[in-house]
Structures are given as C-alpha cells and as structure tokens.
Amino acid sequence: MTSASTPMADRVAAEIERSLLGSEISIGAKLPSERELAVQFGVSRPVVREALRRLQERGLVEAQPGRGTFFRPADPSDAAGSLNRLFRRYSVTPGELVVARKMLECEGAALAAIHRTDEDCQTLERLLEGLSGKPTVLEQAKLDLAFHDHIARASRNPVIHLMFASISDLTVGLMVRSLSDRQVSQRGLPFHDEVLDAVVERDPERARRAMGDHLGTAEELYGADLDRSISDLVPAELRAALDVLPGLQVAG
After folding, report:
1. According to the CATH classification, is domain 77-243 in 1.20.120.530?
2. Where are the domains of the chain?
3. pLDDT digits (tens, 9 = 90+) for 117-147
4. pLDDT 10s digits, 208-227
C-alpha cells in the first residue's frame, strides 16, 4: 500500500472502530467482506485490508481464514501488555505496587462478596485447593495470580478487573518473591482462606479487611527491604524460568 493510502486506511479503521464501539455491531458478529467495505467507504480493497489489519493489532477484530473477520470479545489481558511496558518505563517499585493493589483489590474483594455467584465460589475453592497441594513456586504463582484475578472478575466491575489485568505481570513478580520467602508465604497464604470465607458468606467488610491484611504481609515483614530489586532476592534459575512463561514476568 502506498504512503498516500495510509490516511485512507486510518479513516476506514476509525470508522469501523466507531461502529464496533458504538454497539452498531454485536460482539462476535461477522463484519462485511473486504469488497463490501471497499464499496461502503469508496476505497480500494488493499486500503480495507490495511484498516482491518490495524484493528486486529488493537485487539478489536479477529480474522478467521476462510470465514471472514469478526468483532472480537474484549479480553482483560489486552490491557496488560501496553500498560505493563508503561509501568516498567516508570520503574514502578514493589512498594508502590502494594499500595496500588490495596486500593484496588480490597474494594474488589468487598464487591466480590456482594456480587459473587456459586460458580465463582467453586472456582476460587479449586484454585486454593491447587495452592494447598504444595506445587512449585512457579505453579503457586500462577494459581495465586488466578485467585486474585478471579476475585477481581467476581466484583462484576469491569474497570477493577481491567485494572488488575494491567498490573498482572508486575504482580506475579511480587508473588514469586513472596512465595520464595518461607516466612512471608507462611504468613500470607492463610489469608486466602479468610478472603474466600468472607466472599462465600457475602460479608464485604470482612472481605475488604482480609484482603488488606493479606496484601500488607510482605509490606510488614520486608519493611525497608520491600523495594529491593527482585533480582537480588529470587534465585537466578527461577527468574530465568519466569522469563519463558507467557504472561509471567518478574517485576523489580
């Protein structure tokens, strides 16, 4: 596509995006064909193809070979990549992350206690059963992250869930650090059961308090060492293993 066609592709992409986000097209619906879109916007098919490629990069549409292009459902993980890179550019410290998590997850836990379903409780129970099976630190970190993610999901507030997803890569690094420290993990992990009990009992105040106590454990035990780089505290072989796991990156 020529450079002269770039503004046209931008315009077509913007128009299609406006239709998608303006509820003119249902999630999961198939978009018109390239030929139909070319006629609709008065442009060539290569321009339409480039516009759709840009929308796919933004996570708005999904191209299925032989079937067409579809309006893709939103996925909280979409928020994680770009924001995680931005957080790293700002050199977010573990202490700053803990403060932000308290603000976000304590209220998320309280809302989960109000809005949770029986299915939510069953999922959370399964995740904690997995944690109690004494898996490796990496397995624990994935289950720990999934537990907190599902609490955010159970809040039924998409902003809380999206915000948690955006810090998930940083959060899992902090989790690995805590799980690698026996004193911190022995103090912190039991709070998961307290959070779950409060959510099951639909007790928002207790859920909020239990989550705050849980998130404050590392802050209390590490003290001034909380902001030390995880590179100084987690074994090199564990950091290397984290680097090859999708969605699991070490903070610090």
Report:
1. yes
2. 3-71, 77-243
3. 999 999 999 999 999 887 788 899 999 999 9
4. 999 999 999 988 888 877 87
| 168 closest CA partner among 73, 244, 122, 104 | 104
Buried b (16+ CB within 10 A) or exposed e, 34-44: beebbeebebe
Q: State pTM to two decimals.
A: 0.73
Task: Count the Cβ atoms, other than its own, within 10 Å of residue 169.
Answer: 21
For residues 64 and 55, give the distance between their C-alpha atoms in angstroms, rounded to a whole number.
Answer: 14
Decide: helix, strand or coil at residue 68.
strand
**Rounded-to-integer distance, Cα 170 and Cα 247, Å:** 10
Domain 3-71 sits in CATH at: 1.10.10.10
Which two three-digit tokens encode residue 76? 């909280």
Task: Look up residue 251 and give its amino acid.
Answer: A
- CA gap 93, 99 in Å, rounded: 10
Tokens linked to 243: 């680097």
Q: Are 39 and 85 in contact (CB under 8 A)?
A: no
Look at the block and give the residue holding tokens 């998961």. 192
Which distant-in-sequence residues (6+ apart) come within 8 Å of 155 by Cβ? 107, 108, 109, 111, 112, 115, 161
CA dist 59 and 105 (Å) reads: 26
CA angle 102, 209, 215 (to 5 degrees): 40
